[in-house]
Amino acid sequence: MKAREQNSNRKLDVVGHSVARVDARGKVTGEALYSADLFVEGPVLWGKILRSPHAHAEIVRLETSRAAALKGVRAVITFRDVPPNPFEKGDGAAPVYLLDRIVRHVGDEVAAVAADSLEIAEEALGLLEPEYRPLSFVLDAEEALRSDAPEVRGGANLAGGKPILLCRGDVERGMAEADLIVEGSYQTQRTSPLALEPRWCLAEWQDGRLTVWKSSRNVYGDRDRLAKVFGLPPEEIRVIGATMGGGFGSKDESRLASLTALLARQAGLPVKMGYTREEELGFGRWRHPTVNRIRMGLKRDGSITALDSTSILNTGPYAPGFGVAARLGYGLTYLYTCANARFEGKVVFTNSPVAGAYRGLGAPQGHFALESLVDEAAERLKMDPLEFRLKNHVRPEGQPGTPYVPKDEIVPGQPIEGGIPFSTNFLAECLKEGARRIGWRARPAGPRKIRVKGNLRGMGMACCIYKTGQSASSAVVEVKNDGSAELRMGIMEIGQGAWTILIQIVAETLGLRYEDVKGSFADTGTTPYSHGSHGSTTTFSSGLTAQRAAEDARRQLIETASRLLEVDPQDLKIKDGLIVSSSAPKLRVPLGKVISQRENRTVIGQAKVRPGSKSHIINSFAAHFAEVEVDTETGSIQVLRYIAVHDSGRAVNPETMRSQIVGGVVQGLGYALMEDLPVDPETGAPLVLNLNDFKIPTVVDLPRIEPVLIEHPDPFGPYGAKAIGEPPLVPVAGAIANAVYDATGVRIRELPLTAEKVLRGLRDGGRGGGSSHPKERRNEI
How confident is the model over 723-732, as a mean pLDDT? Predict the structure, then answer.
């Protein structure tokens, strides 16, 4: 640990500098090809999907003859044509197939067609003749848990058959020791990732082998899923990631690739198929709506004796969100020092459209609830919210308790037990710096309700803890005769700057200029195995792997040059395409000459890495501060200033890191203030299918956002880096809700924080327009 920390503190030439992104030119000039732009030689068919108008129904008849007879139609597929292998395993309920006789939400896939043109394909959909037998349905997750609720998947509506349970210490004992117990219920809504690019896919079969080009955040994950669906060896499937117009977690979980591939196999020709904006909004995977209930036990001095929480997640009928629930529970149980903590997460099948991965997974939902309750607890203790957080936030030594993880195993990024220190934890510095920059003033007496020209102003804060993803990966670095190098990895660029950062790491390790390193990525046919671009994993896991592969190449070069120059390898370094002696700088040799002395005239560095630590938790931290103004006549909320302070280790590319923070805050502002995707309670149909109705922040809605980097290199990260991709979105809703409360005295416990809820709260004397008002109970002493 000490040696790597020393290495991370040395002066760097490429890492730590804001170089231009490798994909920037193609994107700004229009040269980049997205999945909707791709074609192959020869005729390419166009696919379209027929979707269910019912929330739950059995297809009793599906006549396809008229559609199949339409001139230009080359393939029609229904549940009768799908492979016998499940698309999704049962998880305590019936397995899911690519197409099914039972449809389970409005928009569920019923059939698909492929035709010579998009217009013919759309016409063919109108000629399909399905007949449905409507079934009882349930849209609300809590109702779905009732014993008399309709069965969504032919089994338990509780996915997995039991809740996710995370426990540390003895919660009941902790509650008994408390002088005060504060509890509350908080709800979060459905929302869409709304990537600029809708998902598209192109599939082609040749000699029984399948090639798929698609919007992907995980080409190897896509390959493995296609292999399972079609019953093929993975080696017979190639997945190529096209340029992606934003991912945010939403691009991999639909059936688009499998349906496109099935159409192509049936038609005997390549097929291209994609989603419209309406399909993306209505059926393209939403953030899980949740109900979160928390109890917090407190001593008179403000210390926390127990945390007890339950969350119910509405996942729709497919794609169980176990990882989402686990991420939600980790934030609830680990952000504040507490020996006794418990989380129960219930992922529930319903007949609502499907929820899935979205930036931050469950952390925004859980942190909104926790950070709202923390402010309420501080007020009841007559403490300033900043003082409460500085007293109680989890310390570098971690949670109290005894670790469960065996000493020879890597510590998970989201443990529940105590007794494990963090590799780095500068949350206190984040809190203090953010408070200084926004001009925080203590308010132990509760909301200030400051009047400015008739409106009300207030400030709020929220913290966050977030895992640094630790996924296995591999990389190849080839150094060429001309002194350049190529990095080959399966990792996908989803808009976060991953490829640029990985190339910077390789250039730094090899002592090359950034411009002298190129990359080949996201192709299962030409690049080695990689994890997906999700879970704030890429910079840490892929970065470590790229660094190790470059170190392997560097070692080979140095060893060869030491024999050539007859000097100790420890005396040599690579600089600007030369290997140079540190003690005698005039003693140098070009990389090309060194490589020419090697067998096969090549240097190829390789690495397979399972990153992590056997002794420390590797997490990122943040503290966000917001100032808002509320119009008491209209209820509208304007965010005036926003300070986002992040402890994410060393910034490999500072400008990219700051951009990640600003982008995450913008998405968080939309989640906090305006985004919502309601469904019709009578039919289950999504009520918002276009951007006229689905409101997201525009330039006129945005405050001045100030990203602040607290840079302390992490001893386990590549050049000291930790996660940054998802944390910036996580605390935003909590910070805004707390600021609105400071301004108005209205505590809103249900997202989004709309003008209607503000006005209702003002009329109701501050109780707000959200879910149940927190309760307070004092134990007898």
Answer: 94
d(CA 68, CA 88): 29
Does an H or E element contain 563, and which?
Answer: helix 543-565
Task: Classify the C-alpha dihedral 309-314-317-319 as positive or negative.
Answer: negative
Q: Which pLDDT tens digit goes with each residue over 375-393? A: 999 999 999 999 999 999 9
Q: Which residue has the tokens 């169980």?
A: 320
Question: How far is residue 426's CA from residue 134's CA, in Å, rounded to a whole number?
Answer: 55
E-assigned strands of 107-193? 109-115, 129-134, 164-168, 180-188
**Which one-letter DSSP state was computed for residue 393?**
B
Classify residue 507 by its DSSP letter.
H
Helix, strand and coil content of the chain, in percent to the nearest 5, comes to 30, 25, 45
Closest C-alpha to 285, from 411, 218, 382, 195: 195
Q: What is the pLDDT of residues 307-349, one digit of tens each?
A: 999 999 999 999 878 989 999 999 999 999 999 999 999 999 9
β-strand pairing of 45-51 with 200-206: unpaired
For residues 556 and 42, give the distance between their C-alpha atoms in angstroms, rounded to a whole number: 46
Show the tokens assigned to 273. 């198929």
Q: Which two tokens stand for residue 691?
A: 């951007």
DSSP category for residue 725: S
Contacts of 441 (CB under 8 A, 6+ apart): 448, 459
564 CB-near residues (< 8 Å, 6+ apart): 589, 593, 594, 597
Q: How confident is the model at residue 567 (pLDDT cuts 50, 70, 90)?
A: confident
Q: Per residue in 464-484, pLDDT tens?
A: 999 987 888 999 999 988 888
Answer for the pair 385, 330: CB distance below 8 angstroms, yes or no. Answer: no
Alpha helices in 566-628 (DSSP H): 591-596
